[in-house]
Amino acid sequence: MVKRTVVIYPASAKEMVALGLRLKDARLRRRFSMETVCARADISRPTLYKVEKGDPSVAVGQYVQVLRVLGLVEDLSLIAKEDVLGRRLQDESLPHRKRAPRKKVPTGDSDG
Prior knowledge:
mainly alpha; 434 Repressor (Amino-terminal Domain); 5 helices; 50% helix
């Protein structure tokens, strides 16, 4: 089997490593052994090791399984929840009504 190499930007790699550390910390806080998480998530120990290291070659489904075991799967709903840039781009593509400038209406008052 050919081993896949996933290349990601350095900032993204840092985020993956940070995610892996948070998952490991969550496992340790719950006092779950690696074997317990592996059995409940139906993954191998080397896969869990990769998840906890933030390895980008691990399928996102495996990360979801670990989150489920740790009781953190609801956190997935926070990903891309507030898409500020996307909404701004969407708003810019909306049609803009073009109107003629308002004409000043004479009031009949003379200041003179």
